[in-house]
Amino acid sequence: MSNTKIVSPKKDMIFMAILSVVVLTMPIWLQPFGAAYPDLMQKFMIFGIFAIGYNILFGLTGYLSFGHAAFLGVGSYTAVWSFKLLSMNVIPAMIFGTVLSGLFALAIGFVSLRRSGIYFSILTLAFAQMSYNLAYSVLTPITNGETGLQLEQADPRVLDRMSGIVDDGSLPTPNLFGIEGIGYSGFYICAALMLISFFIYLRIFRSPFGLKLRAIKSNQNRMGYTGFSTRPYLMTAFVISGMYAGLAGSLLAVTDPLAGAERMQWTASGEVVLITILGGVGTLIGPLLGAGIIKYFENIFSAFNDTVLLNAFSFLPDWLAHPVASVVGLFVGEGWHLTLGLVFMLIVIFLPGGIMEGITRLTRLVTKRDKAEPKSEAHETKEKEQTSAGEV
Amino acid sequence: MSEYILDVTDVDKNFGGLQALSDINLRVKEGTVHAIIGPNGAGKSTLLNVIVGRLAPSRGRVLLGDQVLTGKEPHEINQLGVARVFQTPEIFPELSLLQNVMVPAFAKREGIFKMNFLSSLFAEKEVREHAEHLLEDVGLLQHKDHLAGSMSRGDKRRLELAMCLGQQPKLFLLDEPTAGMSRHDTNRTIDLLKRIKERGMTKVIIEHDMHVVFSLADRISVLAQGAIICEGTPEEVRNDPRVKEAYLGGETV
């Protein structure tokens, strides 16, 4: 998977097939980890989409956007409006969410991409915070302010009414032609979308366009003297990644049809940066791993509370159990962000390439040891090992 | 079409109070090698920067054939057929050598912008073979999958040459292409540049190494303190007393 090799489409198809199997069998192999419930798996998929989209911008071009949560928010609001006005079907919600986020990204990108480096980051951050504050204040008629945008019994749902879906007195739920957007069916809807998104993302990575984006990251100066105008390339990458975020946002609204402004806050923008760096910036699959790991630990750690902790430390004498539990309590529950911060620091200091770098180092260690041992063996086996190491 | 491929007319460049270039007139015939020499700080690199559009001249204009270059962006000027190697190699350190050479080949084919994000790099067999051929030309083919950033300085220079040659520019600007190279590598580069000359590519070359200058150049301009003090064939320049005084300090070449 190294970036310096030109990978054949055949290998990519095999990779896609393996990934599909791994993703679609998640309800089975996540059982022992206690993570096989649909809510959490949907989050894995949604934040996976968000992170791979973000990686198209940050990983390929090196432009660190600190305002991608704005697109997530736009996607959510648009999806909920689509539920309210048009139909509870997820397809129009996703299409409008993605397209509107793309347009929004076009506007923000047009201004922000005039600068690079830290100035670009600050501009995107400013835009996202602006959107967040607008959602709370002047845009209240659209966003419903602090309460958040919710479904109501009396919503028009024009298309649903036209197609004769009857009101049964309870709030309708988002669905795909009758297949529920929550539960296991909801997970499979999200998984399918994630796989489609990943396929497009893979194609971008393997295209001449992707190569040019990486060239921009590597040396923007040379790019200009090579006859490319870098702005439209950066713009396209920015809009594509904004659309991915919009899709993720509208899927968040599918799992829970409520959109609030806090989804646009800078902490949400920071989270996707963190996910990408934790997994491995610019690597294909790193952002997916990062999203899975962060959402998994968020779920586990934030479930701990004082009673659980006291029970866990009940083997200690009482005078010791309380202080220990309160110290550990700082790192779990509400304080899980503290743990996250520590882990993040460790990763950045010791593994700047993220988890993917860790995996590469481990495989290299293992293959090296293998090579060192059978020194006296026949020439043929050695050659085979070398080729297999080359493929890694 | 004028008989000159490059036509620099009355160019001045001021940086605040400093006059870096004054009244520069330079005409380069198609298919020739024109060397620009001069002591440090004479304005050689500034002149190249004006030609490629990195700097806008304070006065005057630059033509490529019949097209005006003055006021255009560097990428537009490159698309018109001007390629440049830099004093410090400008390559893509995080890409492989092969990818480094493929990027300019795409620029040549696709123009300033093309949104082909769903096509496959693997299917671009023609571009890849072209790139491999170029790497072979500069003797780097065996390293094609290495990271460009890990190569030695001399190799980076040759890589940059290959990148520019892949675009088949009408005008090729070289800013000290052999600086920091060993004698062996310098000779190889001279051979390479001579071969390009046979293909009829016009070159403007800035060089300190007189061995390189006199083995390549058809004409030489001598720049001192922002002005061209002498222009002619290598023989004429070698014997010009003004050049000896300004640049060679009385030494014989």
TrEMBL record, chain A:
Record GO terms (molecular function): branched-chain amino acid transmembrane transporter activity
Membrane association type: Multi-pass membrane protein
Transmembrane segments: 13-32, 44-66, 86-111, 118-139, 182-204, 232-252, 272-297, 309-332, 338-359
Region annotation Disordered: where it falls in the sequence: 369-392
Keywords linked to the UniProt accession: Cell membrane, Membrane, Transmembrane, Transmembrane helix
GO cellular component: plasma membrane
InterPro entries membership: ABC_transp_permease (IPR001851), LivM-like (IPR043428)
Principal cellular location given in the protein's record: membrane
Protein known as: ABC transporter permease
Organism: Thalassospira tepidiphila MCCC 1A03514
Organism classification: Bacteria, Pseudomonadati, Pseudomonadota, Alphaproteobacteria, Rhodospirillales
Automatic annotation (TrEMBL), chain B:
Annotated keywords: ATP-binding, Nucleotide-binding, Transport
Pfam families: ABC_tran, BCA_ABC_TP_C
Keyword set includes Hydrolase: no
Domain ABC transporter: 6-250
Molecular function GO labels: ATP binding; ATP hydrolysis activity
SUPFAM superfamilies: P-loop containing nucleoside triphosphate hydrolases (SSF52540)
Gene Ontology CC entries for this record: plasma membrane
The protein's name in its UniProt record: Branched-chain amino acid ABC transporter substrate-binding protein
Highest classification ranks of the organism: Bacteria, Pseudomonadati, Pseudomonadota, Alphaproteobacteria, Rhodospirillales
